[in-house]
Amino acid sequence: MEKNTLSRDGTRIAYERTGRGPAVVLVSGAMSTGATTAPLAAELSDRFDVTVYDRRGRGGSGDTAPYAVEREIEDLAALIEAVGGEASLYGMSSGGALALRAAASGLPVPRVAVYEVPYAMDDAAARSAAQYTE
User: How far is the CA of 67 from the CAs of 14, 79, 86, 104, 108, in angstroms?
Assistant: First the structure.
């Protein structure tokens, strides 16, 4: 059953929950909807209360211009509140970047896991990282 919550700017955010246990919100990439993460939610639902959602401007969620990353963090804040006030985050691609930003902003996020976050390193950072892989 699809539910909705309102973000700080009044944008409707559509989400679905499944399972029982500690809350986890799955944050999909830029070109995805919550349906993209539904198979993972099904796998986790025997141990976690898993929420998948449509990021603003996608699927069943609304959109309010102009776009800003801060609005997506506010969307996550509304979702976390809707699922009990605290949730771990798992983000893929740009959803991983959002999950990290949300945790860094002080939202009640006890754990974060990310996959294929689209961060690039400058040459100095790449050289530094290379010393650990050689």
Answer: 18, 18, 25, 20, 24
Rg (CA), the chain: 15
Give the C-alpha separation, 62 to 19, whole Å. 26
Q: Tell me what pLDDT residue 130 has.
A: 53
pLDDT in tens, 33-62: 999 999 999 999 999 999 999 999 999 999
CATH superfamily of 3-130: Alpha/Beta hydrolase fold, catalytic domain (3.40.50.1820)
Alpha-carbon distance of 47 to 43, in angstroms, equals 9
Encode pLDDT of 59-91 as tens digits: 999 999 999 999 999 999 999 999 999 999 999
Q: Is the alpha carbon torsion for 83, 93, 47, 40 positive or negative?
A: positive
CA distance 104 to 102: 5
**Segments making up each domain of the chain, as ranges:** 3-130
Entry pTM: 0.88
Q: How many whole angstroms separate alpha carbon 53 and alpha carbon 56?
A: 9
